[in-house]
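Working notes for the structural subgroup meeting. M.R. asked for a predicted model of this chain before we commit to crystallization trials. I am recording the input and output together here so anyone reviewing the notebook later can reproduce the run.

Input as submitted:
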Amino acid sequence: MQIIISNSSKEPIYEQIMKQIQTAILTGDLEEGTALPSIRRLAKELQISVITTKRAYEELENSGFIYSIVGKGSFVAEQNLDVIHEKKLRVIEEQLSMVISNSREIGLTYEELQELLKLLYEE
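Returned structure, recorded in token form:
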């Protein structure tokens, strides 16, 4: 598992770690039961604080992506991909609603918005 941290990103480091691990789980790169690096080892590899890594793992555990066993480490949890898909779809719908609202405020036409979406999607 390779995690890349961007210091120029506005996103906090723990969220960058979380999102990359979530993506690896959802795409099947990390399968159920796979052991994750220890909090200390990952912090050392990424040259970041143990507290930052711990927060990322805690958030992943709270979201149901991983589980931890004291003295053994953290592991990829079984995923219900249908539930995750529905949650992500709801988030996308909410974000698109905000985009549509902002587009209307500045007078962007449906066709202009569609073209913008197409350009961004193809990047």
